[in-house]
Amino acid sequence: MSVGQTSSKASKSQDASPRQPGVPVSGWEAVIGLEVHCELLTETKLFCGCRNRFGDEPNTSVCPVCLGLPGSLPVLNSRAVELAMRIGTALQCEIRPSVFHRKNYFYPDMPKDYQISQYDEPINVNGRLDLPDGTSVGITRAHLEEDTGKTTHVGESGRISGAEYSLVDYNRAGVPLVEIVSEPDIRSGQQARMYVSELRAVLVASGATDGRMEEGSLRVDANVSVRRSGVQDLGTRCEVKNLNSLRSLAKAVDFEIARQVALIESGGVVAQETRHWNESASKTMPLRSKEEAFDYRYFPEPDLVPIIPGDQWQAEAIAGMGPMPARRRERLVDALGEEAAGAAGFGSGLHDQVVTVVELGLDALVLDAVQLGADPRLTLSRAANEVAANLEGVARLSVDSFERLISLEAKGKLSATQAKAVLSEMLAKGGDPTDIAKARGFEVLASSELAGVVAGVVNSRPKEWSRFVDGDEKIVQFFVGQVMKETRGKADGKAVLAELNRLRDSSKASPD
Amino acid sequence: MTGSGDTSEGTSARPAGGPEVDRARTQATSAIPPFYSAPRLSTAQEISAAVISGEISARQVAEAHLERIAEVDGDVHAFNEVTAREALDAADELDRRVALGENPGPLTGVPIALKDNLCTRKIATTCSSRILAGWRPPYDATVVRRVREAGAVIIGKTNMDEFAMGSSTESSAFGATLNPLDRSRVPGGSSGGSAAAVAAGFAPVALGSDTGGSVRQPAAMCGVVGVKPTYGMVSRFGLIAFASSFDQVGPIARSVKDAAILYEVIAGHDEADSTSLDRIAPSVVSRLDDGSDKIRVGVVSELVSAASPDVASRVHEAAEVLASAGSMVDEISIPMCVYSLSAYYLLAPAEASSNLSRYDGVRYGLRVDAPSVELMNIATRSEGFGAEVKRRIMLGTYALSAGYYEAYYARAQRVRTLILQAFEAAYEHFDVLLAPTSPTTAFAIGSKVDDPLAMYMSDACTIPSNLAGHPAASVPFGTGDDGLPVGVQVLAPALAEPLMFQVAAVVEHGAPHSGATVSSQGTEQASGMKSQVLR
Which of A79, A305, B222, B422 could cross-link B199 (Cys pair, CB 3.0–4.6 Å)? Predict the structure, then answer.
């Protein structure tokens, strides 16, 4: 096929309206690789002593080195190397001797008009990230590089072309980054989202970053191509930029898959290009074509010497680094016991709770409470819901008091409603669960008393009761609610349910 | 240089320009009168001792040199800017400290000229390029800080080939420097201003930078001593980069001893330069009287063959001097040497093409406005850089481009490794090597500006040391057939500066007193100058 044909077809329909995004297209397979830039949590920048902090007054954290003034030279921040080694360890990479290269291109936010990065000898290679759904994505490399400054284009377009003028803030120039490049193992927007979500958790757990996508601590570019099912050769890929949230990542990838499939099915050809995700229009738009792509003219950075990550340095770098989320989820599932573990498969409510608890760093609290004797499933549930809803209060919650609260509920001394109320107060103000329950007048009704209340409610609602007896399961909640109202929450929900079922069964067994 | 508005109080910037140089070219072709009003004290060593002892004040020394510059530099154009006010302030401060009984350091009161690619705080640093005209660095280069701390008085910023790219100082955007020994000739380059300043008696010592011979070659052509240290021995922080893996700052002086004193001041580890070796400066001054008995000296035949017959003869005579001082002298062939120039002119421009990218008009220096950032970049760089700089940016960009990298840059790197290995092998049999510094004496102004290859050839004997990262010193040794000075080079293995200085001192001692060098005349006349200085 001639170049002319390619470009005319391509240009004609590159932006053809695609089919519904997000729906898997039968007969097609998407191949996605992600590049994630992660800002490292160092005190200072990668090659100078300037403060590395988000949100400073523009151009205040700068010096001759990060401004690239003539005569200035970079000096490597060893802390950044250590955090890169932590990332390498967390992603099960091989950590190797590495060298910096210069990536040359002109851009106003790059003070030297080259970026110091790593090229064919990166510090971390051949890793893997295990996802919660049991799949895993290969990590090609995770290398060190410096960030650029930040340009704000003032004008209608918000982009450099057509801008009235542009403002450059060099505070970010020289901030240390690790770029994590995945293998093209991802197959959907949903999986891309899961990958980044898990990667973010891993990076935060490694102590390398705060993971704040909204502040640009984590930035994602996606390489997307499609091919017909069963075909081995890769299709032409497009790089999609400006993916500022997990949501836009999934949407953009799905859009791009649908766009490429629609394009090919209508007889077009995908052009290799860089595309920009336009959030408000919910579509990707061309940014620059392959012909316009830069020749970066990489060559070894002569101002720096190779990094040799010796065994001892690596050991020091990863000292104190806790287990990664996947391992922590496993521990949590193990603590649930055999039966529950079977019910904690991917997609289950229990699995979601496990993921949430690990993501929020509440797994130690849960495991410690269980260790003290708390019921595992109840502990997990309270942590994933009530505690998760008030993370600031966690500091006021001792493992011991949390365990006693769970045990009060588990033993039926507090109803679920009461337990939630007590926990909420513990998180808000601290305190002992027994004292709080007493002060609030909480006590679970004795079963004899409960039976009387339940019978009273049942007798006062004959119509609803007959529906329940006839098999309307949903209406049982109505009776539970009524009993709770009657007892002002002192009844134990499970006990109420049990009593209601007992009454129903007995009325079925002995029809009038 | 652009308007005078950039000039700070107390300094005098030279106007840019061809006209003045043209006048100099046509008006005067003879040597400037040697040292008639120069300070009595013509070496750094003497000046420092006299200032510390109170025999003379630092201010008197500074004034005498400023006077000499005011009288003569109009005919030489060694300086881009004479920092008279700063020099006098610094001298007064030194005098105050000396009066309190302090000893500021080994360069107390010694005027020093700095190549204009060394960053000086608040003093314009231009690399003799329009693109940096008027730029004032917010910091001192490490070597500048070190010479200040050693008591030196910065007397001015010297002219150079633009961004140190050249061998004659003719590619300066502010006009050529003339050889003070014969103003129809170039002073060599790229540190031509520094070498000329020392030769003309504007300062006893100067700093230059040597990427492919830019300290040694002009030193040879101006009849003074020039030293390129081992790569990594002297900090590059604040030296505006030309080719980072080659650049080294080095001393220029009227004697081997002064060069050694200045070397000790500037050498040694600097944590601001990652390529700086983790070593303290070795003692070299202490070695100057050790002679060269039993030292194995190899005369590099390929480099001698590259020189004109008169220059080659001086090298052989220098070898005889060493032989009669007890050295074991022999010829050595290092065939890899002949590939030096080719490798260098791929690697150095490659690094330069990247190093010079930052001059884009966005942040500092020249900006030529245009409708878009990209067009502004192009307009600024088109106007801001001279022809030789553009030629090397293009060469280097090409050598690094996709599809050519392997054939050019990568292959040149392998040649560089082979040259290093060839020298290391040679040093298994010899302690030092001897070679010409420049293949010829100073050539006529304008004679090579239109022939870049001929110009490049004048670095053929100095480039191998830069490729290998080894130290080398150029010592004046007699004259060529034209009566102009010849420099002989002492090459040494990495970190062997002590031995290099030791042998250089023997060569210097044995050099014929030709009368052609300003330095020898100055020394001879020195005793008669006292009354003028102390008037």
Answer: B222
